[in-house]
Amino acid sequence: MRREQEFVDGLHEHVETLRADADRAVKEALAQGDTTRQGRLERDILVAERSGLLAALDAVDSALCFGRIDLTGGATHHIGRIGIRADDEERTPLLIDWRAEVARPFYLATGYSPMGLRRRRHISSEGRTVTALHDEILDLGDTTRTGHEDPTGDAVLLAALNQARTGRMGDIVRTIQADQDRIIRAPHQGVMVVEGGPGTGKTAVALHRAAFLLYEHRELLARRAVLIVGPNPAFLGYIGEVLPSLGETGVLLATVGELFPGVTATAADTPATAAVKGRAGMAEVLERLVRDHERLPDPVLAVEHDRQVVMLDEGLVRVARDRARSTGLPHNLAREYFEGYLLNTLTELVAEQIGTDPYDGSNLLDDSDVSAIRDELADNPAVWDAIDELWPVLTPRQVVARLLAEPDGYLPPEDAEAVRRPVTTEWTVADVPLLDEAAELLGEDDRAARDRAAREQRARIAYAQGVLDVAYASRTYEFEDKDDEDAEVLGAQDIIDAERFAERHEEADHRSAAERAAADRTWAFGHIIVDEAQELSPMAWRLLMRRSPTRAMTLVGDPAQTAEAVGVGSWKGILAPYVEDRWEHRRLSVNYRTPAEIMEVAAAVVRARAPEFEPPRSVRETGIRPFAVAAGGPGELPGAVASVVGDLTPEEGRLAVVAPRELHGELGDALGVPVTGVPDLTRRVVLVDPRGVKGLEFDSVIVVEPAAFGPSDLYVALTRATQRLAVVHAAPLPDALARSEALDRA
Ligand SMILES: Nc1ncnc2c1ncn2[C@@H]1O[C@H](COP(=O)(O)OP(=O)(O)OP(=O)(O)O)[C@@H](O)[C@H]1O
């Protein structure tokens, strides 16, 4: 223990030096004034790098080192959250990053396959103080003993699993299990699906995989960013600290409702409405709606020009429309072509009207006359009104709002009723993939932005030119008598370089890749990780696949926990359109969260639908049996819940009351718990609705009125506790629970 403490102390001293160096480097660099473009670039890179290092050092401050491996050859390596090297010539590694290949045996070695290890040591600490060592002997011939042997090899894991919860997920870097490690370190190309029941560590594995990929492919992923998609904001809050604790911050965490820049949708539709909006067929519906805006006159459209009236008939417009469509461009981009064709058509009509020789029918106009007519037409607002009517520029919001306000003719009557709503500016989560699809169909008409950018650039150049002219004039004057040729040449060159000077004045984009990605709908992420992937609709998959042209994705989920009517039918069905059968499937089968006693109750709920269902194997038994409490009637429910909350609230840790939303008001009053949209999971007692509890976990869970839950919601709710579970009900229990022998009656 003393030696490990000395090692840890030495490590912290070294970290202090690194921190001070990095801090100084950042301050010095920031204090430097603007020099050359190159200099500023280098400064920005240095500041970003050192600030990143500082953030990583701060994040991993406690429990920096958590393990040691002793190799049969005599070498030893300490393993930690980040890698640290000594200052010597060879930059000798002091602490090995857990993600490095050298650290791998720490996670994989067994007595049967020791991978060159003699011993594996877990080092536990509180803050900077080493509190315990646990050694596993992997070389069975080795007889040296340290007095810290852990005969079963799982003391550290069990201690982690039994620890009181904090309302924030923690990292599992000290105890990653072998099957989890293989997923975390799988190659990053292609699609990998990770399936596993509740508590098998899917979320933990997904987050550690992100950290591993950022380590292994740092350059690519720092540029392209990693996106992690989760089911709801409470869940993202719950997992938000895992990656920073591993020293990683450059990751974008988002729900699907946040993936259309400018919209943050949290409102949910009813399941039936979300199901209609999420169907793959909606892509064609939107396409049809957009094409219906590429209109034909019925039968003619009169355009006034220069005191004449020109008649655009259906046939003429159809030709222009077909030509514009044949470009294959999205609606807003093809409009430029439509404008051109229609102006040509109008020019011909006007030229015919005014230029035809009344005697022989020949045209009296020459090319320059015709060209002048075209220019005049292009200046005529009436012409642009006609173009706007026939081929309007559309925004994604207009298109989706129009569909939802007037779905008739686009959706069968029943579906139309399900989605219909008045025009509104508030979007639901299920609207977001529709907005994204619409944006894709419309294309970005960036001509205005391009023109503006060009104008600004010209203005900047003119300004820079002016500045340099002044500088040049004064310099010439200043150097006139000195006959300093060099200075003269320099001044002249600067003026030639006005354009470069202007560029230098452009603000550098200081945002991180993740921040830029969040603001850019067309961003292609380096890797996408989807948690609770079973929840996503086909339309949401379309959106995500557009963000991942390389299809580097890790999808984790559990079909048995699917609540959404449009969720995953089968991975195959979802993935085939994008990658055919080129995806990998991995399974996790050990439940680290839910003790066996609770899992038996939860499994009964699924078995009522699927008798052959096999739940994941719980790694722990606690000897504490779940129980049900029957309230005398609905009026007595809050009191009964309050009494069970009193019994089950842990000294440390968290308790969740999972109840249908309708009951939250009276339960909140009875328990003195605030009723909020996004629950504050760091409170000792929280009130959550069945949908919102997905992915979360607590020491104790009380499920209220389970008859009101959908079967998959009930399964999810019953599998959230690490220690104790109770069910409180006024209505009769669902059959599966009523019959379960694993549920005691209090
Ligand atoms: N190797 C491990 N070491 C320590 N704790 C672990 C390990 N694997 C998983 N856990 C813990 O088990 C709990 C469940 O993990 P996680 O939430 O990742 O499971 P999940 O499969 O996503 O569950 P669900 O589908 O029910 O939401 C977490 O508290 C996690 O920290």
From TrEMBL:
It comes from the Bacteria. SUPFAM superfamilies: P-loop containing nucleoside triphosphate hydrolases. ATP binds at G196, G197, P198, G199, T200, G201, K202, T203. Gene3D superfamilies: P-loop containing nucleotide triphosphate hydrolases. Keywords: ATP-binding, Helicase, Hydrolase, Nucleotide-binding. The keyword Flavoprotein does not apply. Residues 175-595 form the UvrD-like helicase ATP-binding domain. Coiled coil: none annotated. This is AAA family ATPase.
